[in-house]
Write a structure and sequence with these properties.
- The model has no long low-confidence stretch (mean pLDDT about 95).
- The chain is built from four helices and 17 strands.
- The protein has about 230 residues and is mainly β.
- The protein has a six-stranded mixed sheet with strand order 4-3-15-8-9-12. A five-stranded mixed sheet has the order 6-17-16-13-14, with no helix packed on it. Strands 1-2 form a two-stranded antiparallel sheet.
Length: about 230
């Protein structure tokens, strides 16, 4: 799947990433209490506990999209903001992505629920090397639209989640970098007010040290379920 990312730090520079391997890192928190909170959120929706933490789910790379209008089946899916780390040309970059997931299907199979929905990705990226030294200071946030207003849905520092280097080493059996063409979402934070569907989803990776952000928003159109 070819994705184009602008590089704000390099003026008008862009890169093309040919992603052929997509990995969703689940249960990627450092704080076991926070992980337990997210597990309980999902248990309230009838979703079973994971067999281990973290877990690495494989999803078809063609599910990645940078479109701002996407389609989902039914009205039981919702987004989750995550950092998206990928290897392009032997260099690691970080962008923002949503692990949009079918919650109804998730009660039967987490793996299938993740495969069922597209994974929106931002259109800009930073070099991971430029932020890795203060990674824990970065913040992820998301907003949904409810009753015509933007509502803060998620917010948390990356210090609450495992670092990319930790997740990469676990996934690759000790390697320091993802394989060329591999992209990984690196975990999420709990939903404020509980997990719930919303058509409009906006996500942000905020760098407080440099006062900059990567942002992306999308609208999910619900397709009717027919028997």
């Amino acid at each position: 799947m070819k994705l184009s990312f602008s590089l704000p730090d390099n003026g008008a520079g862009t890169i093309i990433a040919d992603i052929h391997t997509l990995v969703i890192a689940g249960w990627a928190g450092r704080d076991m209490a926070a992980i337990e909170h997210h597990i309980e959120e999902l248990e309230a929706l009838g979703i079973s506990r994971p067999s281990a933490v973290p877990l690495f789910y494989r999803v078809s790379a063609n599910q990645l999209t940078q479109e701002k209008d996407v389609q989902v089946l039914g009205g039981e899916s919702s987004g989750e903001v995550e950092t998206f780390v990928f290897n392009a040309g032997g260099e690691l970059y970080v962008s923002i992505a949503s692990d949009h997931t079918d919650r109804k299907l998730e009660a039967h199979s987490v793996a299938f629920s993740k495969q069922a929905c597209v994974k929106p990705v931002g259109a800009a990226a930073w070099k991971l090397a430029d932020v890795v030294d203060y990674w824990d200071e970065l913040v992820i946030r998301s907003w949904i639209e409810e009753n015509g207003a933007a509502v803060l849905y998620q917010e948390g520092p990356l210090s609450s989640l495992r670092t990319p280097s930790d997740l990469i080493a676990r996934f690759t059996n000790g390697q320091a970098i993802l394989p060329e063409g591999c992209g990984m979402t690196c975990g999420t934070v709990g939903a404020i007010g509980g997990i719930r569907p919303a058509a409009s989803f906006t996500m942000e990776l905020f760098d407080p040290r440099r006062g900059r952000s990567l942002r992306h928003g999308y609208v999910a159109q619900s397709l009717a379920e027919v028997a």
